């Protein structure tokens, strides 16, 4: 009986691959029948089951997976009681099961309708469009910065606990009056990761566990980055699996909130992506625009840069390569570079709202 189940699971794997290949061509179906229906119910069930637990079940799940894989490798090397064929069958069946659960619980969102189609905006923009958007962001950010500090040269300090920021971000999602995004976040399921130190060395601010739908954030990052990081991971949690889309949602949710500290995080988050994009198009103009920013804003940026530089090393480079390939496999052909496409969403959404 056991061997029969293993064989069925193993055979099911290539069938899944074929199904996913076909499904990529039907994003409307995924959007309608999975992302906007089945996933909504299954994710709410996951939140109900795991949100009350103070630590991350998802982190423990990954720890268990690592132990299972290590145990299998040790058995493979020793291989006293089982043949190589049997062990490979077990491995193939295990991968097939994990692949199935990944897609059912969350992964099909990779093949949903792109957010720019849902919003009815273009992905094309020119330097003039970008310049107009950046100038507006700089004006808003400088004005808000002056309200939060006594001098332009001071960075904004975030005197909040992790839980306080979690509550603010949760309320931002609950209180948003943005009808374009069609967001419904009923149960807070956001937790500090047990693996924050490894995440720091790997260069990650957080992640969503697709099996438990818990959003984990790296609690070691500067508190100034908590709002957009948490909002980003909640965006993933709600089914916006692509990085550029989760970044866009994090920007909109925080920039439109009534809390000044959340707005400051959101504005500087969107501004940094936009200035980086302008630098690629016109480095000189980018430098002129940066010079218009209050020195204290640049100190907030430097605070984050200093944090990541303290943990930079070979692990980060390896994980960047692995994660880039992961994104390419999951319908993001630009890999990590797809992060920059958040600017297209921001610029064109801004144009849509302004006209």
From TrEMBL:
This is DUF3810 domain-containing protein. The chain crosses the membrane at residues 5-23, 52-74, 86-108. The lineage of its organism: Bacteria, Pseudomonadati, Bacteroidota, Flavobacteriia, Flavobacteriales. It comes from the Bacteria. It holds the Pfam family DUF3810. SUPFAM superfamilies: Metalloproteases ('zincins'), catalytic domain. Keywords: Membrane, Transmembrane, Transmembrane helix. InterPro entries: DUF3810. The keyword S-adenosyl-L-methionine does not apply. It comes from Psychroflexus torquis (strain ATCC 700755 / CIP 106069 / ACAM 623).
């Amino acid at each position: 009986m056991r061997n029969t189940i293993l064989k069925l699971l193993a055979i099911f794997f290539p069938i899944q691959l074929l199904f996913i290949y076909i499904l990529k061509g039907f994003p409307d179906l995924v959007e309608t029948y999975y992302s906007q229906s089945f996933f909504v119910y299954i994710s709410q069930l996951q939140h109900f089951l795991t949100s009350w637990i103070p630590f991350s079940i998802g982190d423990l799940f990954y720890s268990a997976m690592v132990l299972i894989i290590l145990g299998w490798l040790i058995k493979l090397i020793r291989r006293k009681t089982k043949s190589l064929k049997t062990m490979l069958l077990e491995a193939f069946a295990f991968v097939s099961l994990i692949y199935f659960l990944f897609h059912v619980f969350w992964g099909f969102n990779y093949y949903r309708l792109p957010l720019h189609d849902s919003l009815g905006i273009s992905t094309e923009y020119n330097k003039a469009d970008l310049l107009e958007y950046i100038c507006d962001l700089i004006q808003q950010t400088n004005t808000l910065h002056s309200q939060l500090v006594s001098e332009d040269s001071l960075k904004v300090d975030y005197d909040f606990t992790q839980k306080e920021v979690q509550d603010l971000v949760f309320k931002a999602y609950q209180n948003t009056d943005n009808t374009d995004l069609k967001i419904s976040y009923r149960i807070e399921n956001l937790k500090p990761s047990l693996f924050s130190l490894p995440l720091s060395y790997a260069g990650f601010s957080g992640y969503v566990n697709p099996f438990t739908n818990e959003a984990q954030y790296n609690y070691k990052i500067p508190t100034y980055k908590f709002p957009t990081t948490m909002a980003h991971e909640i965006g993933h949690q709600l089914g916006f699996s692509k990085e550029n889309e989760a970044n866009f949602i994090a920007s909109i949710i925080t920039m439109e909130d009534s809390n000044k500290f959340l707005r400051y995080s959101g504005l500087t988050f969107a501004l940094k992506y936009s200035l980086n994009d302008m630098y690629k198009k016109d480095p000189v103009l980018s430098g002129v625009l940066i010079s218009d920013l209050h020195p204290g804003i640049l100190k907030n940026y430097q605070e984050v840069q200093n944090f990541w530089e303290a943990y930079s090393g070979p692990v980060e480079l390896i994980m960047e390569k692995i994660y880039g390939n992961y994104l390419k496999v999951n319908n993001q052909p630009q890999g990590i570079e797809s992060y920059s496409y958040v600017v297209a969403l921001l610029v064109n959404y801004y144009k849509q709202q302004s006209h």
